[in-house]
Amino acid sequence: MEIRHLQYITEIVRYNSFTKAADALHITQPTISKMIKNLENELNIELFIRGGKQIKLTDAGKAIHNYAGPILQLFDNLQAEIDDLTYLKKGSIRIGLPPMAGSRFFPGVIKKFQDRYPGITLALVEDGARKVEESVAEGTLDVGVVLWPADPDIFDSFPLVEDRLKVILHPSHPFASREMIGLGELAEERFILFNTEFALHNRIIKECISTGFTPRIVYESSQWDFIGEMVAENLGIAMLPSRICAALHPDKVRSVPLVSPAIPWRLVMVWRREGYLSLATRQWISFTRENFNG
């Protein structure tokens, strides 16, 4: 039994005629009669009582007709949902965004995407880049923004933002008026870092050790603006990307370029190389690539 058999039976009952049902279905009367006969042979039952002017169902025919309506409705709903997905009227995307990336670079992009595809739901998860990378690799997120480099054996990616870290200091700090600061000059400072869920945590520690010292970490946070406020209270120094520093109050903190070495802050959009990507997710990837690199 096929869906079309249910459609044929429903239309025959609706029009009380094989001929009118065939016209409504845009097939010939011999074709619909043959299809019904083939179904009766397959099921080894009769569906219609032949003879007389009225079309009458047998008990078996009535049973099939009773189920045909709900089944056909579900089938129509399925086709409609597939069409919605095909034409990007519906769907959902799980996106991982580090707090700095989410707040500074994505509100406008998300607004434009939702204007174009209002039926697509964006489930945004704010977390550190390291945690986002793990979640995309595990498949609990569809796409995510992480720090470059991302493992090319696991991820496909494209670049979003390229920046460098600056040192954030209290205005009273001796280095506050400097044009640049070498990393080695910060060996005796009190460091305020992002917590261990953030890729910058390990990146900064690694660069300090390579320069010849282990940083003295006094506070950790998951929020860049809170880190800025702690520096404003002269609790220590911090390092933030240049574009984020521009959002800090210049009367409360100073930001000075870091050199020797400069520490890059490069954001990339990643998704798994292996595995299924929904049409909505593929469109998000294409849309963000266009907006950031167009």
TrEMBL record:
PANTHER family: HTH-TYPE TRANSCRIPTIONAL REGULATOR YBHD, NITROGEN ASSIMILATION TRANSCRIPTIONAL ACTIVATOR-RELATED. Residues 1-58 form the HTH lysR-type domain. The keyword Transcription applies. It holds the Pfam family HTH_1. InterPro entries: HTH-type_LysR_regulators (IPR050950), LysR_HTH_N (IPR000847), LysR_subst-bd (IPR005119), WH-like_DNA-bd_sf (IPR036388), WH_DNA-bd_sf (IPR036390). Keywords: DNA-binding, Transcription, Transcription regulation. This is LysR family transcriptional regulator. Belongs to the LysR transcriptional regulatory family.
